[in-house]
């Protein structure tokens, strides 16, 4: 296999800058550095100790060096305290969801592409099919595809795909590189999750990108990042979605809600203005008037915070630990729209992930950062850019989504960290998280059917958890859906 040299890759990066900018609007937006959360270490978390059966990384934490591609080591993959149970398909997207219906059927739902038309040809010819893939997970060792949801909203739901367990609703909004008109599709998965039924398809999403679901399943929120909108949709009657609220002049990403649905935790990409986008970080909103269905509801800002090494805030998952309230927040990619980011990509900050205390929603504060050695500035200034796809701003060594198995005192978190694969962290001590395992299957051969040929890991999806079977599910954009079992005692963190 012939790999392009670093000079060629950098030249290609400059030529593709305009295309990249459009793509990044689709998968993130703009970001800047903030000015708070000082005094918290940004060093890499302790490295995992890999037990029997592992195939550990050969370099610093999170890295797949170029030499591993040339000598064949990368083709074997990398695992630490994990083992592959099964694999399905050849592509993936941004969400991996798990749901068990009242009849006891357990299903997986995952979007099959980052954005149309990236994987259309390969998905059709490979038999994977388009849109959202539905898997019967009765036997996790042998996932069985039972449906492809190819309604307009599900063809490319981008980062909006969510399932509400209480009401048995699967919802997604069409989203593309230009933030598509928000065609919102609502499916019933409660009757039989293996064969979802389309209840409605409407333009109620306004503009699509990311999303949020109130825990009661009656309000679905859409963040139209590149369109500067946030929309609240009433799904009390799923067959008749109704727009409740449209906020403008905001650049929001993931929208997560408190257990009562009255407080929203926003991955705030920033504020548009004459000088561009400023103020990336976390914003906490009071959405109680929407939750209470007040006429002409108002949304008020409770607080906004930033952190010095911010890249693009992605999502902030709420959880409790030892009686306190926290968010597990993730930044994606690098600081793409700063001068530093555009002029010298390897030196751009990688936000990765962090834990934020939100006991007082008016005064949140960062408790700890979660990074790998491959994210540290000193290492990024080395020869990392020589690794396949490390130079590409929308891939590279960075984070994308994280997930926790429960909101109530989780002991573990899983993060899709793009080229570094799925990473597992012990978060029992929120001030001192540490890595306990990983699983990474980088792609080592270019797919001739792909419209955008790519190598390496492209772990982008929020993971889902099968606690009873000590497993985690996720997708890699370049290679499909994986069921990964935790081993060597790491599985105890699920219980």
Question: Which helices and strands occur, and which strands form pairs?
Answer:
Elements: H1 6-15, H2 17-27, H3 66-70, E1 78-80, E2 82-88, E3 96-100, E4 106-111, H4 120-126, E5 132-136, E6 144-149, H5 152-155, E7 162-164, E8 169-173, E9 184-188, E10 197-202, E11 210-213, E12 219-224, E13 229-234, E14 242-248, E15 251-257, E16 263-273, E17 276-278, E18 281-286, H6 288-291, E19 300-305, E20 312-321, E21 324-332, H7 339-343, E22 353-357, E23 365-370, H8 377-380, E24 401-403, E25 412-416, E26 422-426, E27 434-440, E28 464-466, E29 471-476, E30 480-486
Antiparallel strand pairs: 1-27, 2-30, 3-4, 4-5, 5-6, 7-8, 8-9, 9-10, 11-12, 12-13, 13-14, 15-16, 16-17, 16-18, 18-19, 20-21, 21-22, 22-23, 24-25, 25-26, 26-27, 28-29, 29-30
InterPro entries: Haem_d1_sf, WD40/YVTN_repeat-like_dom_sf
Backbone shape: globular
Number of strands: 30
Amount of helix? 10-25%
Give the number of domains.
1
Which fold name is given in CATH as the topology? Methylamine Dehydrogenase, Chain H
Q: Ranges with pLDDT <50 over ≥5 residues?
A: 1-36
> How large is the share of residues in beta strands?
25-35%
Strand order of the largest sheet: 1-27-26-25-24
Average per-residue pLDDT, rounded, comes to 88
Summing up helix and strand content along with how strands pair, one would put the structural category as: mainly beta
Query: What does the radius of gyration come to?
Result: 21 Å
